[in-house]
Amino acid sequence: MADEAHLVIMDETAIRRALTRIAHEIVEKNKGIDQCIIVGIRTRGIYLANRVAERISEIEGKQVGVHELDITHYRDDRLEITRGDLETAAALGTNAGQPLQAKDKIIILFDDVLYTGRTIRAAMDALMDCGRPRSIQLAVLVDRGHRELPIRPDFVGKNVPTSKQEQIQVSLQELDLKDQVTIIH
Questions:
Q1: In terms of CB atoms within 10 Å, which end of the chain has fewer, N or C?
Q2: Gap between the Cα atoms of 141 and 10, Å rounded
Q3: Where are the strands (E) in 128-179, listed by range?
Q4: CA nearest to 37, candidates 52, 15, 25
């Protein structure tokens, strides 16, 4: 078995700068945050969403709502999906026990890595079960290409062209005790 080569493509400083830039871009694009809700996809997307929300609070002087979304039951690679699964999954889009009210809101959907687009499609399906948002904007820390669906991010921390054999690994302080993004060859 050959050794895998790990190359750090974003360190703690690069991640911090990318998230700060994304926060500014969200505020600018939406002319403030009054109608915005940030939704982080479990697992790493919610930590990134919380960090961006903190930066937006510093910029705007007010809080933006943040919710966590578990899309497990919406994935198209699951063998069997039941109605009960969908009701449970939609209920998981909560913030401090409050259900996500997406109706007429601008949803900024946050994930760590955008690859084929299938995770984002599943997240959009889950969001629609929480009410019809005015719009959904996509923010990702890393866009690595190779889309299988017509999905394009509105806010990107870093574009990293990869081969399909390579992997992107995002490590975050909250889970992995360090902030870095590596590419594995």
A1: N
A2: 10
A3: 135-143, 155-159, 167-171
A4: 52
